[in-house]
Amino acid sequence: MVNYIEASSAPPKNTGAIRLYDTQAFEGMRKACQLTARCLDALADIVKPGLLTDEIDRFVFDFGMDHGAYPATLNYRGYTKSTCTSINHVVCHGIPNDKPLREGDIVNIDVTFVLDGWHGDSSRMYPVGTVKRAAERLLEVTYESLMRGIAAVRPGTRTGAIGEAIQTYAEAERCSVVRDFCGHGVGRLFHDSPNILHYGRANEGPELREGMIFTIEPMINLGRPHVKVLADGWTAVTRDRSLSAQYEHTVGVTADGCEIFTLSPAGLDRPGLPSLAR
């Protein structure tokens, strides 16, 4: 049975209950998420061939510190970096290092800032220089998958409607949906209930209610959906070495749909690709 609880009275840990946030909490999330979005906007100008992923990490750390925020991933469960940088066949949780980006790479940059106790979580794909059409198409399909999942969010539906919208579209485009990772509740906690699967059926999962806040972050592969985690305990890669992509937004359920907290203020939600009017 799914339990819902007013966030203001919930304990500071994930108990499995789904928190329902008030208007004041939504305002706190707007500020944290917009800071994250602005950082991702700024990265669009510096992601180029030759850039070290460690330089991306330093940029994110400095951006957060300059704006009174702290990177949530830094020292989280032993993780030592301020961001994740996942290149080409890396599905998620790629660790920044001294490896330079190369012409034709695609890289996901995942940023979460903690501002006044609120977690703003988002990620985007960045093409490095000129990429092949197959990679560009994967980015297009992945972004559209995210937006179709978001369009399914409204009170009274179930979390499975999000997964069904994503899976139906991605598989019709001859891509696959990663099952091993999912979206999650977010707010005062970095990772909270419920889990948001990116596959499934519309009649499955907890009911969506006004005040819920969570991420939607589909990982879409050009090949098969299977992944493996490398010996570092973090880096997840496609087993068949096919390209993988991910876009992520944090959303809050409203009375008649949802609010996307992490929308780019500069219209750069898909950097390197044409903007889409929605």
From TrEMBL:
Its cofactor is Co(2+); Zn(2+); Mn(2+); Fe(2+). One of its GO terms (biological process) is proteolysis. A divalent metal cation 1 binds at residues 110, 121, 248. Its EC number is 3.4.11.18. Keywords: Aminopeptidase, Hydrolase, Metal-binding, Protease. Substrate binds at residues 93, 191. GO terms for molecular function: initiator methionyl aminopeptidase activity; metal ion binding; metalloaminopeptidase activity. Removes the N-terminal methionine from nascent proteins. The N-terminal methionine is often cleaved when the second residue in the primary sequence is small and uncharged (Met-Ala-, Cys, Gly, Pro, Ser, Thr, or Val). Requires deformylation of the N(alpha)-formylated initiator methionine before it can be hydrolyzed. This is Methionine aminopeptidase. It comes from Rhizobium sophoriradicis.
